[in-house]
Amino acid sequence: MSENLEHSFVKQLTDNQNIIHKICRLYTDCEDAHKDLFQEITIQLWKAFPKFRGDSKFSTWAYRVALNTAITLYRKNKRTVATVEYEGRQHFIKEVDYNYEEEEQIKLMYKAVYQLNDIEKALVFMYLEDKDYREIAETLGISEVNARVKMNRIKGKLKKILNP
Fold it and tell me: Which structural domain, as residue segments, surrounds residue 18?
């Protein structure tokens, strides 16, 4: 693989790592699992990067790969992530500080979101990231109308969870 491709990947990953951290936070409940999932998503992104054609934004593509990786690994309620050894050049990506001691309201929201199924979690995450329904539908592989209907149902579900 060319050095330019590697540098391009590292730059894109560095610029978009908050997306991956947020997905990890959504699908894990402790710092070690978060780090393991982050590493596995990074490996999957790296393996798939040569096939990234740029038809969509890198962030949209990264969402799709990261969500698919998280859903696949945690669908069966796995608590540990089987990682893959990467024997290539080592790149050092400066990790953005990620504060686990967040405000009480955010913790309550995450607690409510944990109760949703995998697809609902992904939809809420993208909605909270201000993604439009077209991009949400494209990323999740559903119709735009279906994304809107699902989001309205999820909002009602979250209201019941947060205000029983």
Answer: 1-101
Q: What is the pLDDT of residues 7-16, one digit of tens each?
A: 888 888 888 8
Distance CA 7, CA 14 (A): 10
Q: Which run of H or E residues covers position 11?
A: helix 3-27
Is the domain of 83 the same as that of 41? Answer: yes
The alpha carbon of residue 51 and the mean position of all alpha carbons in its chain are separated, in whole angstroms, by: 19
Domain end (from 101, 118, 143): 101
Torsion sign over Cα 35, 41, 120, 102 = positive
Instruction: Enter the pTM of the model.
Output: 0.56
Among 6, 2, 29, 11, which residue's Cα sits nearest to residue 94? 11
